[in-house]
Amino acid sequence: xxxxxxxxxxxxxxxxxxxxxxxxxxxxxxxxxxxxxxxxxxxxxxxxxxxxxxxxxxxxxxxxxxxxxxxxxxxxxxxxxxxxxxxxxxxxxxxxxxxxxxxxxxxxxxxxxxxxxxxxxxxxxxxxxxxxxxxxxxxxxxxxxxxxxxxxxxxxxxxxxxxxxxxxxxxxxxxxxxxxxxxxx
Length: 185
Hints:
The chain is α+β, with helices and mostly antiparallel strands. It has helices spanning 4-21, 25-48, 146-149, and strands at residues 50-51, 54-56, 67-74, 88-92, 100-107, 112-114, 125-127, 132-136, 152-153, 157-165, 171-173.
């Protein structure tokens, strides 16, 4: 899918000859209203239903490629609604304004998590505060995540990654293989 600006440019270039050949202002008004409706519908779909961004960066290897994987993000899970441990989420990066990131949730409010899972001798346990979650990249050595900036507020979550595009350009569902531990009896 082309980026929105490229798509908009293609639509305008397609309609330009039609607009220039029309002397009727009603026809121009109808086309303008139609384009406005198309823009609004596209905004509503990408903001409240789902989006398909490309990925960049090695933090989610091997689940996602370091470049050019396309994922489907369901916006049904905005603000952390329905998100569970093991889900991969998209969120507003807490340190880089305007940037988004993808990581895996490993702790929900009230859960205890290890602060640094890949260093030996450091077994500091933290409890995830209410209204926050603890996230990690799958590639621990190349990931900036909650170990760097702490737990993130659930309000920063944009959605949950539910599928990725495979080599045949078909989407395959991403499954959550992590399970919550059962209480000891």
